[in-house]
Amino acid sequence: MSIIPGVLNTADRGHLLGALASFANKVPDQWCPTGHPASDGQLPDWRTLPSVPAAQAIEAVAAAGPNHCIDGWSYASRALSAVLAGDGHAARHLAYYAQLRAGLSILSNLGVGIFNRTNFVVTAAGAIVRLDTSAPRRPNGPGMGTHDIVWEALKEWALGAHTSRTFLELVKIRGTSLKECLDAIWPGIPATGAATTLIEAWGVDLRRGKDEHKHRNISSYSPQAMNPLGAIAPDGLRFVQGFWNLFEPTSGSSFDNLDRFLLRSLLLKQHRTISNNQDYANGAIASRYHELPAAIRGLASVEFLTNAQQPRNPELLQRANTRTQPAQATEMLARAFLLLRAATAFTHTSLVEAGVSCAGGDLRPWIDPWAEARGFWSPANPLADPIDLWADVELAMIDFLDSIDPEPTSMNDWMVRSAKGLPTVYEAERVGVWSLCA
Asked: Which residues lie closer than 8 Å to 220 by C-beta, 6 or more apart?
């Protein structure tokens, strides 16, 4: 079984946006209500799918995007919890599923439906076209499994100049797309020719998905004592601190602290591709810095973007780029957070383009019950602005930082200290809540 050549190029977002628009101000079970073929989030197999109206299949794809995104944040949160419990194998298992959900969300936002071996694209004409082949002599048989199709589809999508351009258009920093940033510095030079390497420069290495799956399998099915991962403390504790340093929301955006580093990686990579040198101070980034939108210049100085200031990336980004074999839990979790950043950008942009007012409360009937289930607020007293969830984290981090100073020598050394900031410091799904409602 394999992806059918060329089909991925026909995926289109237009009909997806129309379906997303219909979800505004509706509770989750109204997105695909009782009687809908995808009321449980799944679609029938290829023996039955052709009888499902295309509009309902498209609604299933549209509903999958935001839900996979927020569920991915939940898996990442549980992985962060496992890090703080000293359980590297559980953290690795959960980090992989956070990556997988992020990948499913990205594909859904592109008009690609992945439903348990029922895999297809939505075309510009609103047709449902099968994405993969089935076993020989079974034209209506099941397709590729979810784990395989997600990474293969994302890899192929990133290789295509047309399809990968969507990444640069949908990921936005302070309202400006990555493509606009590249065009401001290198006008007239297509960024899409190097889009695959630019996607990787952003921190999203889609080629690693299959390797991460293998490492997840070891953690999930093999005796853990026979596959030691090493001690979590103090590395894992520093990782938690580094995560919140990067994902603290700001007045300009939910991701300013992270995005400035990722933007720099993108621009430096494009400079090296075009100029074949590392003389950033005398290149286009410096000479055309003034052409960047004011919001971007307010985020990052020319000294920063040319690597003259703070040249060392934060630890979380360093871990995401680490190639340890086997992959360590915090490395996989770092990559999960970057994939979730991309999935959140795709989802938010799709909702806005569909006319859904995220900041205006159109998503609250969906997100409020979810946040209530996590205990972030009570059913009778939801937060007026979900970004206020940061206040709990800010207070919890005071206790957490006290608990890792001086640096503990073991997990027990940390656990017996009174101030830890738990459970708030591992509730990474708070980021998903406030960023999707921004």
From this structure: 93
Contact indicator for 69, 340 with CB cutoff of 8 Å: yes
Q: Which residue has better confidence, 371 or 226?
A: 371
Burial class of residue 104 (count of CB atoms within 10 Å of its CB; 0-12, 13-18, 19+): buried
Cα(313)–Cα(321) distance, rounded to whole angstroms? 10
Preceding peptide of 33 cis, ω within 30°: no
Residue in 164, 160, 200 with CA at minimum distance from that of residue 179: 164
Residue 193: the pLDDT is 57
User: Helix, strand or coil for residue 128?
Assistant: strand
* Most distant CA atoms of the chain, gap in Å: 65
Give the E-state strand segments of 344-402 in sequence order. Answer: none
- Greater model confidence, 130 or 167: 130
Which bin fits 378, alpha (ψ -120 to 50), beta or left (φ > 0)?
A: beta
Distance CA 138, CA 397 (A): 56
Model pLDDT for residues 105-136, shown as the tens digit of each residue: 999 999 999 999 999 999 999 999 999 998 76
What sign does the dihedral 31-35-40-42 (CA atoms) show? Answer: negative
Q: Give the residue carrying structure tokens 């050549």.
A: 5
Interhelix angle 389-403/429-436, rounded to 10 degrees, is 150
Q: What is the pLDDT of residues 310-364, one digit of tens each?
A: 999 999 999 999 888 888 999 999 999 999 999 999 999 999 999 999 999 999 9
Q: How confident is the model at residue 252 (pLDDT cuts 50, 70, 90)?
A: low
- Hey, which residues does 128 pair with through a beta bridge? 122
Sign of CA pseudo-dihedral 142, 144, 147, 149: negative
The one-letter amino acid code at 243 reads: F
Report DSSP state, residue 111.
T
- Let me know: does 65 contact 109? Beta carbons within 8 Å: yes
Residue 343 near residue 107 (C-beta atoms within 8 A): no
Buried b / exposed e across 400-419, counting CB within 10 Å, b at 16+? Answer: beebbeeebeebeebeeeee
φ, ψ (nearest 5 deg) of residue 291 = -80, -15
Would you state the structure tokens that stand for residue 13, as one six-digit string? 């977002």
Q: Would you state the structure tokens that stand for residue 418, as one six-digit string?
A: 């009174």
Q: Are 114 and 150 in contact (CB under 8 A)?
A: yes
Burial 135-152 (b: 16+ CB within 10 A, else e): eeeeeeebbbebbbbbbb
Q: Which amino acid is at 264?
A: R
Spatial contact of 215 and 96, defined as CB atoms under 8 Å apart: yes
